[in-house]
């Protein structure tokens, strides 16, 4: 499938109703299949957004892109599977769109394509990461404890302990974004 540039409008058929109330089954037969086309462009949008994280460091020793690449690279070099590595790569993609609730952005993008465990890990990594610093900024570092009964508590705790909270080393040599582009395209292409 060819990729659309941002300014191009799809030449696929369109409907002409003014409200959903007046739409018909025929209209939805035109619209429904085009969701797949929109999804087919997601990978390129995600890659662009990841690249834009290069321009923000937020005071951290490495840029938000380097932190993401380093998290993914550490997971990959530790033998994690592709799906886990993709989650590690994208876990902070929402940092510059929604700093206060950024885990929800990545979790939303990944949800249709990853396991329940990986979705939980991405969605809640903020509270688990908080264990390492929230006491320094006036928050409860034990906030993650509300998830103690979750079957994914230790799984998420491990993600932060091994890969997320360790991925701020300016001397670490991470894989470049290009290394992960095929994985992004493969998983986010859609079904
Ligand atoms: Fe995060
Ligand atoms: Fe992170």
β-strand number: 0
Identify every distinct bound molecule in the structure, by name, code or SMILES.
fe (ii) ion
Alpha plus pi helix count: 9
Largest sheet: none
Helical residue percent band: 40-55%
Distance between the termini: 14 Å
List the uncertain runs.
Answer: none
Overall average residue pLDDT: 95
Structural Rg: 19 Å
Gist of the model:
It is built from nine helices and no strands. The chain has helices at about 25-30, 35-40, 40-50, 65-75, 80-90, 100-110, 115-130, 155-165, 175-190.
Structure description:
The chain is mostly helical and 191 residues long. It is built from nine helices and no strands. It has helices spanning 25-31, 34-40, 42-52, 64-77, 82-90, 102-110, 116-129, 153-164, 177-188. The two termini are 14 Å apart. The mean pLDDT is 95. It binds fe (ii) ion (2 copies). The site of one fe (ii) ion (FE2) has 7 residues, from helix 6 and helix 7.
State the main characteristics.
191 residues, mainly alpha, 0% strand, binds fe (ii) ion
In terms of topology, how is this protein built?
Layout lengths: L24 H7 L2 H7 L1 H11 L11 H14 L4 H9 L11 H9 L5 H14 L23 H12 L12 H12 L3
Helix pairs in contact: 3-9, 4-5, 4-8, 5-7, 5-9, 6-7, 7-8
This protein binds fe (ii) ion (2 copies).
